[in-house]
């Protein structure tokens, strides 16, 4: 009843046009993207609503109604993209260029492609007049790449009615990885994101002339405090879901690369294993609360010893972390009463959705169909997404994409020559539509 070939062509063309709209954040200008989406929806007889959290900062919502017997699914993507440095691209990042079987453009993976899969799948279901058990909510948000304040957070605060009746939220990443280091495809479904806990260290001391320094100046105190903090070993913490990820991953790794993955907590007590494991920055971040020194400020003038020196630490928390406990741990590591430790803003406590819901299982089936032989693993993302906001609003939030991506392609996300294969778009829209038929079709 659905012509998959035609739907695939339409998906490619819709994404090509969507990628031509520059929604680089800042400034975002998501309203241009929202207008494009609204126009397509209107043409198909689907009403949509747009709200602006600030000038140009638009988010859009549309809905295919279900019969109300089951909770709704919010299919959400962010309209904004990160900037593209044209000097390093071989094509125009907003040109919608198709070459060698790929569609190029900023947002080709992160994440206008997923947004267009949502859109095209809804159009297909609407045209086929498929009766639904669940509402399918199409949600396009502003500002995800800069912390969600003008997008998902604005919606959760101001328009909770946009989420009313919904049980699930699905967004991005997930992906199916296939490369030479794996014996079978490895697919992930994101169940949680680490959240940032920005911490400010402020050292204070007597100011003075740079020509006559003394040991306890504010900058000196700050440098020593940072040194102690970075040297402090915070023990790893392996969440059961993270152990599950590595156990599943072990199944697709050559045996010699999987040694110790069946009991990570135990293996991490071995210094040699720990060093090898931590050498992979992403893995290290999956089992630890991390502290990155990102901003330093001292005097405004080279010959003035300032009364104050500050450092910003980008701390990232895992599900189950307690911000107050972390602050206490940092204070103990810093061990200087003249260095104040404070949160730079209110903590965003991490949240997590279970990997055994009906939707999770259906998504896992979809991934295994898309890439036969794939092993599906639950994943904790080390970066932030809008799903944190929607989980906090009471929904189960997952990151899912039916795209088979090689490792090299991943470097292009936020990098140069971001692209998606036409095959991924054609097969992806079919996989997505079938998933929605499975979980929401009456
Ligand atoms: Zn993204």
List the helices and strands and how they pair.
Blueprint: H1 4-19, H2 30-43, E1 48-52, E2 58-64, E3 72-78, E4 98-99, E5 102-104, H3 112-127, E6 136-141, H4 152-158, E7 166-171, E8 176-177, E9 186-193, E10 195-204, E11 208-209, H5 218-231, H6 240-250, H7 264-267, H8 271-278, H9 281-286, E12 290-297, E13 304-305, E14 308-317, H10 323-334, E15 339-343, H11 358-370, E16 375-381, H12 387-392, E17 396-399, E18 404-405, H13 407-410, E19 419-421, H14 422-440
Parallel strand pairs: 3-6, 3-7, 7-17, 8-18, 9-16
Antiparallel strand pairs: 1-2, 2-6, 4-5, 5-19, 8-9, 10-14, 10-15, 11-13, 12-14
The structure holds zinc ion.
CATH topology of the largest domain: Aminopeptidase
Shape: globular
The CATH top-level class label of the largest domain:
Alpha Beta
Strand fraction equals 15-25%
Distance N to C terminus: 16 Å
What percent of residues adopt helix (DSSP H or I)?
25-40%
Largest sheet: 6 strands, mixed
Task: List low-confidence stretches.
Answer: none
Ligand kinds: zinc ion
**The CATH homologous superfamily of the largest domain:** Zn peptidases
Number of strands: 19
Instruction: Indicate the radius of gyration in whole angstroms.
Output: 24 Å
Give the count of structural domains: 2
Known CATH architecture of the largest domain: 3-Layer(aba) Sandwich
Look at the helices and sheets and give the structural class: alpha/beta
Integer average pLDDT:
96
- Largest sheet, order of strands side by side? 1-2-6-3-7-17
Count of discrete alpha- or pi-helical segments spanning 4 or more residues:
14
């Amino acid at each position: 009843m659905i012509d998959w070939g035609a739907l695939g062509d339409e998906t490619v063309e819709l994404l090509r046009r969507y990628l031509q709209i520059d929604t680089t954040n800042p400034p975002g200008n998501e309203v241009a993207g929202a207008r494009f989406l609204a126009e397509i929806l209107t043409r198909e007889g689907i009403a949509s609503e747009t709200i602006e959290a600030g000038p140009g900062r638009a988010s859009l919502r549309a809905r295919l109604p279900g019969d109300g017997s089951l909770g709704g699914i919010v299919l959400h993507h962010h309209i904004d993209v990160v900037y593209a440095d044209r000097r390093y691209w071989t094509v125009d990042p907003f040109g919608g260029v198709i070459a060698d079987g790929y569609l190029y453009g900023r947002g080709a993976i992160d994440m206008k492609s997923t947004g267009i899969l949502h859109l095209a799948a809804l159009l297909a279901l609407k045209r086929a007049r498929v009766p639904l058990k669940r509402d399918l909510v199409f949600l396009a948000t502003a500002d995800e790449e800069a912390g969600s304040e003008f997008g998902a957070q604005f919606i959760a605060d101001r328009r909770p009615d946009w989420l009313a009746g919904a049980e699930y939220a699905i967004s991005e990443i997930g992906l199916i990885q296939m490369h030479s280091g794996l014996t079978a495809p490895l697919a992930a479904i994101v169940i949680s994101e680490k959240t940032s806990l920005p911490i400010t260290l402020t050292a204070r001391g007597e100011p003075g002339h740079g020509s006559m320094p003394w040991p306890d100046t504010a900058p000196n105190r700050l440098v020593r405090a940072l040194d102690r903090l970075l040297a402090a070993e915070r023990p790893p913490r392996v969440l059961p879901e993270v152990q599950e990820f590595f156990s599943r991953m072990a199944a697709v790794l050559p045996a010699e690369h999987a040694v110790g993955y069946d009991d990570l907590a135990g293996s991490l007590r071995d210094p040699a294993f720990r060093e090898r494991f931590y050498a992979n920055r992403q893995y290290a971040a999956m089992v630890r609360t991390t502290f990155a020194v990102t901003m330093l400020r001292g005097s405004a003038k080279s010959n003035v010893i300032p009364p104050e020196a500050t450092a910003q630490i980008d701390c990232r928390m895992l599900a189950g972390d307690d911000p107050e406990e972390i602050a206490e741990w940092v204070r103990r590591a810093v061990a200087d009463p003249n260095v104040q430790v404070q949160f730079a803003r209110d903590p965003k406590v991490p949240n997590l959705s279970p990997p055994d819901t009906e939707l999770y299982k259906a998504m896992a089936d979809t991934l295994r169909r898309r890439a036969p032989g794939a092993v599906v693993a639950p994943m904790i993302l080390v970066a932030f997404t809008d799903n944190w906001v929607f989980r906090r609003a009471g929904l189960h939030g997952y990151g899912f994409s039916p795209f088979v991506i090689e490792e090299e392609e991943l470097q292009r996300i936020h990098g140069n020559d971001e692209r998606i294969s036409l095959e991924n778009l054609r097969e992806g829209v079919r996989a997505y539509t079938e998933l929605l038929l499975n979980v929401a079709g009456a």
